[in-house]
Specification:
- This protein has 73 residues and is mainly α.
- The protein has one domain.
- It is 67% helix and 8% strand.
- Strands 1-2 form a two-stranded antiparallel ribbon.
- The longest helix has 13 residues.
Length: 73
């Protein structure tokens, strides 16, 4: 648990955070979610397996799939 701007935030991991960005894309913007995915992949902070697993957990696999295929290629 971390305090960010006075708000308690649970930090799970990079792949979960990327999936959460897509889950809350209406609040933060799709561009931010895609940028998070791209940066996590380029810095080798996530694996394909983890991204797909957390996308399923957060129920955003269908939304993330096109971006995953574009970034991972």
């Amino acid at each position: 648990m971390h305090q960010i701007a006075g708000v308690p935030v649970k930090i799970y991991g990079v792949a979960k955070t990327v999936a959460d960005c897509f889950k809350f894309r209406n609040q933060i913007g799709t561009k931010t979610a895609v940028d998070a995915l791209r940066e996590a992949w380029q810095k080798q902070k996530v694996t394909t397996e983890d991204l797909y697993r957390f996308a399923r957990v957060c129920r955003v696999l269908n939304v993330m799939r096109p971006y995953l295929e574009g970034v991972l290629e």
